[in-house]
Specification:
By secondary structure, the protein is of the alpha+beta class. The chain is built from three helices and five strands. It has a five-stranded antiparallel β-sheet, sandwiched between helices.
Length: 167
Amino acid sequence: FPGCPGAMPIVYAAIARGTTVLAEHAAVSGNFQDVTKRLLAKIPTKTDTKMSYVYDAHVYHYSVSSGVTYICLADEAIGRRIPFSFLEDVRERFLTTYGAATIQNAHAYQMQSEFSRVLSTRMEFFSNDAGRLQTVQREVEDLKSVMVANIEKVLERGDKIDLLVGK
């Protein structure tokens, strides 16, 4: 994750109707499927909602829309904006690809062969976006530090000039 070259901040994603997983993808191995199934059983799907659950150094983010749950597991360090943007992107692509009627009548893993590749490419895209965002944030922090140091120097010079003018 942060500081690990090639690591993906979004490591797992799934789409489910109720507790029925329709498609999923894991970028690394782990017990994501088991934890996701337990989590899906607890997620209310009658109303559209967004929520996050902390799990060790990762966070499960999910979005429910029209009874379908879009869920991902991400490194806690990337925050909420990128995972929820990822989930919204996946939701739009999933609905466009299959349509509401097909999704409501689908059986477990029916979309796996086709849509797991989409999940994989979108996870990679949004994970790279997270890396670029962290790089930009570090650069902004560095720039801010330099600017604060420069302002302090200017203020010190101003004090010295005031002293000279006073003499």
